[in-house]
Structures
1.
Amino acid sequence: MENRDRRKTDFSNTKPRQHFTKPKPDPKEVVFGIRAVIETIKAGNEIDKLLIQRELGNSPLIAELLQVAQEHNVPISRVPSQKLDSITRKNHQGAICFISAIRYAALHNVLSSIFEKGEVPLLLILDRITDVRNFGAIARTAECAGVHAIVIPSRGAAQITSDAIKTSSGALNFLPVCREENLKDTLTYLQQSGVRVIACTEKAEHNLYTADFSVPSAILLGSEEDGISQDLIKKADQLASIPMSGNIASLNVSVAAGVVIYEAVRQRVNIR
């Protein structure tokens, strides 16, 4: 759900906003050094992302790193050296990777398993949700409500760290998370598999209570800042909004997720 505050606020009488430094990643979740990163990937560790210094040339070792990363479907980002230096002051050699706190599931395996059990799929697709605590809170609600899996993009999503697991109250230990390279292609795959995609956005003409969640469904929620990507909105089978009557006219995305998920639960409870 898009999180936009439409109010015009007067800050003239407010105290200066405090500035907080971004917490450094847990050292256990970070591996640096080209050879160390290569061996970490080869060992089968689940990698959230790989950062490679933009200024590095294509040496044989870098070429090997890129090849190994591609073979294991590791998301790669080329970044300036300052980015790497902000993560560690040690000799990173231009390469840092983040080990995921969970193992990602294959979407086709998850979907096949749901159908084989005779259950009606209920999936949650998160388009560029970047706040770790929002992600953890959403996962907690989703697991409690019986959502079968969360789908995220391989780039532009919150890093799943121990902090995310803590915020989810351990829900991420039980709830499958599927990381997909291209969400647009993922929507197509789900639709071809008989799953209806319902995009939750304030741009919708109809509210979520008009949507039918009793059928195989995938709930699509957008980023905290600019909502669902336009190309994904166009792909969705239906747009639905949460009714708003207050002045702010927007909800935190984790709260919005809870509202929509439990409307789906309400409908499914009523048909049992």
2.
Amino acid sequence: MKIEILGSGCAKCNKLKELVEKVVNENSINAEITKVEDINKILEYGVMITPGLVIDGDVKIAGKIPSEDKVREWLTQ
């Protein structure tokens, strides 16, 4: 599974990355987590407001931090 955190390094982007890492570790999910800070790459996903979360090329959320339960749901389905 490939997980991308879209954002420039703001506090919300960092919090989203920590949240995703927590869920991945707690559920023993085999995932590659990368941080995408290149604005052009972020725009390619159609994301205008960060943070954004992309799982296997699919944008799950943009502009806000999802709940831990929602992240777990996306990563375990």
3.
Amino acid sequence: MKDHMHKNSPMKLNAANLDAFPETILRPRYDRAALRAGMVHIGVGNFHRGHQAWYLHRLMQQGLAHDWAIIGAGVRATDATMRDKLLAQDCLTTLIELSTNSSGAEIIGSMIDFLPVEDGNAALIAQLAQADIRIVSLTVTEGGYFIHPATKGFDAAHPDIVHDAANPTTPRTAFGAIVAALKLRKEMGLGAFTALSCDNLVSNGDILRQTVVSLAHLSDPALADWIDNTCSFPNSMVDCIVPATGQNELALAKGFGVDDAAPVTHEDFRQWVIEDHFCAGRPDWDKVGAQFTNDVHAFEAMKIRILNGGHQVISVPAQVLGIDTISGCMEHDLLGPLFLKIAHEEIAPHVDAVPDMTPSAYVKLIQRRCANPMIVDTTRRVAFDGSSRHPGFVLPSIRDGLAAGTSIDGLALIEAAWARMCAGTRGDGAVIAPNDPFWADLNVIALRAKDDPAAWLSMTHIYGDLAENARFVAAFKTALRRIWAEGMSAAIQNYLSR
């Protein structure tokens, strides 16, 4: 591997040490002490720091957007852990780009503070009500938007939503904090801000609008109308493979001479496509590679169907086969071909081209990105929360295939593989640890489906009317019976031989 590893003992990452790091490490050229906040980001995980925070940092490197610095925030206990790590290093992050034959490190400084994570979210509400905050962005996972599993509308009965509706000044959720802050802004005549979802959801801006406006309506209908009429909720598509941080990533940072408690590794690819609909201004992210467009949906469909759907295609059977990494899947003599066959034959035909990219070319791009052996992205991480990911990433391609009369056998096999995975054991008998917010329920149904495959499809909050489609049901039942009788490898081989 060609790189620039540092021989001496690593130094703690903080503002005081910035100038002392090896010259091979890129670092902020701007005066961080002079930055002013313009954004609050809720949900400061690895993806945000490797994606949105990087775009802003690159703008700042050009002498731009110095009044758009990010203040981090969170509403979950795990956010407090990240806050402690980042505040101890002045909110600096080491980004390590890993391509197939090289690596490089860059320290980014676009975040300048991280709010206390606390019951009632008083600090978050107060910050969001400040006039200089013009964008509030979120990465709270696909399953975090309080979407009713059956209706796909707003889930007003969720206990956290019921709490926030009854206690609007001391909310539990990020959305409750947004509503409370917007109420203060309205009362003070400060105007609205843009709420920007950076999660992998089709129409993520529309869904964020639905959640915020619907929640506001439960306690203050007039406020809800004001939010709906004055706030912006741009749809966006985000893309960069950013693994979780473990001992390997901590060691990589130290190899560059940086003792970073929360470094981020990422692939050598990023994409951010955003509707240009910002009610209170925005940074010029397009100057550093983001794309502003009026048609996010075509980009979004291509990425969610082929990358996110393709991730499920390989990670779910991999969990049963005991293959731990995404790159390992692409090297595997069955899973690599399985991805290509399903992507080319069952997903790409239902995806429109976007400027400069056909669906088949995008499949090849995803194949290359997933095969990068330097990115240690685990199949466990990618297969997590199937109860949110399958309805969003996989089932739409099945519906399109059924409507068009084209093959859905491979995707039916993946749904059967998910049912097999949720039974909680690998093919060799090893235990698969719980890997879904609803794992206990899924596990009971998966074990029942071993003898009665229809039991799995009875989850109408996931499958809806697909459970009544004779062609899909037959393909699913055949696949699940074969997986249990002959094993995952034999079932995949059977599909590949067609």
